[in-house]
Design a protein that fits this description.
Helix content is 19%, strand content 32%. By secondary structure, it is α+β, with helices and mostly antiparallel strands. The protein has a five-stranded antiparallel sheet with strand order 1-2-6-4-5.
Length: 206
């Protein structure tokens, strides 16, 4: 069988098909190019050196070595005692320090007859003071005078505490002198009474 010669029309049709195929290929290529360009959008960034924030601090320590200021038994009317304690500031912020009472207890009303004076100053130390003197202490401001009962009742938190010490940097110190006297007029009803309280120092940044 003799192969048929392609007619001019078929050749023209073939050319049209080829053109359609070629156009389709161009459209696909163009579409692919457009999609790629859209997907790979242009970007730019800039970055600041890492920033950080550190909170300031307030901290306090003292030289009592975990010992009580007073541990006295057998008090009689007129008995007195003195003890000093050095408080050191260790914070980075300026602060105001107050002292107040915690854990207060009493029986037979003893604390109502126990006079207490607290004085801020400098010098002396916990170990080098007592039972009746604070050798080397230089007095400054007296921040409380009254009874232990009144102090422990009224000054039971930072807000109601006493004191004017305002340290501004770590390492600054202050000495507090505590002096107590059992009122000479203490009645017999107070005999065998007890009184106890802890003294707490607290700093708030100013």
């Amino acid at each position: 069988m003799r192969s048929r010669e392609p007619t001019a029309a078929s050749r023209r049709g073939g050319s049209a098909w080829s053109r359609r195929v070629a156009l389709l290929a161009l459209l696909l290529a163009a579409g692919a190019f457009a999609w790629t360009t859209t997907h790979s959008s242009f970007t730019a960034t800039t970055k600041n050196t890492s920033s950080s924030v550190t909170a300031g601090s307030v901290s306090l320590s003292d030289d009592d070595g975990g010992s009580a200021l007073f541990g006295v038994s057998g008090l009689t009317a007129g008995s007195s005692g003195t003890k000093c304690i050095v408080v050191t500031y260790g914070g980075s912020l300026a602060a105001l320090v107050h002292v107040y009472a915690t854990g207060y207890t009493q029986t037979s009303g003893l604390a109502r007859f126990l006079d207490l004076t607290i004085t801020q100053g400098s010098g002396s130390s916990f170990a080098g003071s007592g039972p009746t003197t604070c050798s080397g202490f230089t007095p400054g401001t007296t921040i409380y005078t009254g009874t232990l009962d009144s102090f422990a009742t009224a000054a039971a938190s930072y807000a109601s505490g006493v004191g004017t010490w305002a340290p501004t940097a770590a390492g600054q110190t202050i000495t507090y002198r505590f002096t107590y006297t059992l009122d000479p007029r203490t009645p017999n009803a107070v005999a065998s009474g007890t009184a106890a309280a802890s003294f707490t120092w607290e700093a708030h940044n100013s």
